[in-house]
Q: What sequence folds into this?
């Protein structure tokens, strides 16, 4: 069975009634599995995680676009996160039995229909981008809703689908296919942001670290400590345990304990097993042939200090 | 005082009398400091490390070229290392008070004179390359002495200085400016090459590891164990301690002890101090303000397990 993940982001994170009206469309669609949705009031944005078959997924994205078009007017939207559309971005991610090229085709089909049905201009981004400048979403979105009014008229920035003028209330949207990534954060038991900053620099690609790691420091006001917040873009080449142990090694020089770690969204079972094998081999224990998801959950809590983690964060739970 | 390092490689590593005749020219020149020279019989090649001021350095390279032209005939040369010239490659490396752009100019001056004086065709490589394909020495040298006879006639591969035909006995040479690099090897106490291979893959840029690390596995027949052999292209961004600790962390899963490490050629004092600071901070000890080279040597033996290391491997010893 071909399965894709889709993580649409829409531009409402404060008005709970409105969020629920929008989400009711998603919840009503039994053909696609809603993994979770998280609204952030500061960002004024909601991130929805969906897993399903290709065609039902496209149909649901169209329905989501329709309800967001009705509910959201970007002329009255403020928030800390950059945005250019009521639905801002729609990434398609291959999960099982489906190639990247098929996800690119799916994103193009979805983009075309969004434009045809709702007269919303659409940019293809990430692996679906037609030019290198459009691979990066921040690059497309620069100027945001307000700036896109003029930017989209420039020959360089005409949309991939639709006419070169944004929708007056919806704005425009980026649709594309990208690789799966693991959003992974490591807790440092200090309120001082410097260790997290130095450690992020040590491990991230952009400052000379591991090739598939994006990282930055963040202070969690509610929890009272800092984190190294990361995306792992390729967990085969930059496995979780290697990142975790490198962060631990760097943290030692600041005398800062690494007190926990968390996965935001989903993680493939294979990514966890690869890392658990490391810890088993340290202890000279043979890794079990077919561990249950419960076994895996208890092991990642023990070895990788995962918190707030259960089997519903593992993709295979839904397959 | 402007100082450059220059590391000419010449194609003789077996005939000791011949090597000494060639090196006598270098040893007789008191205006440039001979740091060391190492001949490898399997490679049939000698690597010379020199430090000095720009103009005396170019003059010495010309004298070295002249004696190698007289002593070496590549038509009778065999060896494991790829080569295209009697003097095969001449890199200029900024050491102190000199910019990369000045080293590029110096390499161009040297290349021009080699061609004018001895009618040897010269390729500019590394930072001196005029086209991206010539940045990589292996790319230029592909085909080696034997293949260059034809390759150099292709429009794409005409030399930067000289006519498009190799010298009948000398061949041709690559001259260029490049950044300083640290040649660094870590000993694994096993004859099994698999751990070294897996660890090299984990840390090197080309398979997803650190941005400024080149690495591969090697088995040292005489010593009876394997190594992870590396170049550190930027020790500020990929400091020695981080590489050492990551290799240690990875080696643990194979139950293989990391038993030592070595620097081939020279290392800047700053690279060692940066790494020692890590170990001092682990122990909560303040790092001394102005450590002597002897102190540094004893510390890197203790913390980084350097073997065969003394202060004459530290660049500052010669300044």
A:
């Amino acid at each position: 069975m071909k399965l894709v993940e889709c993580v649409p982001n829409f531009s409402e994170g404060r008005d709970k009634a409105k969020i629920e009206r929008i989400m009711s469309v998603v919840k009503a669609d039994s053909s696609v599995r809603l993994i979770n949705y998280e609204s952030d009031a500061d960002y004024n944005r909601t991130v929805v995680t969906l897993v399903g078959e290709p065609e039902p997924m496209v149909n649901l994205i169209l329905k989501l676009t329709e309800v967001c078009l009705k509910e959201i007017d970007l002329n009255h939207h403020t928030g800390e996160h950059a945005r250019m559309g009521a639905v801002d971005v729609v990434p398609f991610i291959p999960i099982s039995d489906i190639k990247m090229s098929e996800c690119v085709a799916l994103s193009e089909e979805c983009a075309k229909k969004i434009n045809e049905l709702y007269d919303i201009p659409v940019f293809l981004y990430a692996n679906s981008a037609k030019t290198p400048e459009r691979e990066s979403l921040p690059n497309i979105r620069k100027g945001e809703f307000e700036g896109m009014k003029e930017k989209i008229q420039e020959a360089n920035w005409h949309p991939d689908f639709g006419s070169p003028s944004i929708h007056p209330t919806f704005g425009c949207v980026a649709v594309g296919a990208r690789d799966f990534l693991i959003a992974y954060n490591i807790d440092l038991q200090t309120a001082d942001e410097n260790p997290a900053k130095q450690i992020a620099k040590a491990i991230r690609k952009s400052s000379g670290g591991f090739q598939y790691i994006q990282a930055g420091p963040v202070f969690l006001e509610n929890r009272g400590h800092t984190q190294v917040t990361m995306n792992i873009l390729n967990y085969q080449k930059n496995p979780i345990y290697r990142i975790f142990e490198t962060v631990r090694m760097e943290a030692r020089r600041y005398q800062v304990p690494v007190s926990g770690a968390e996965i935001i969204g989903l993680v493939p079972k294979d990514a966890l097993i690869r890392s658990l094998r490391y810890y088993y081999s340290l202890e000279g224990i043979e890794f079990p042939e077919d561990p249950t998801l419960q076994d895996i959950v208890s092991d990642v809590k023990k070895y990788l200090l995962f918190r707030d983690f259960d089997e519903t964060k593992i993709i295979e739970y839904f397959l």
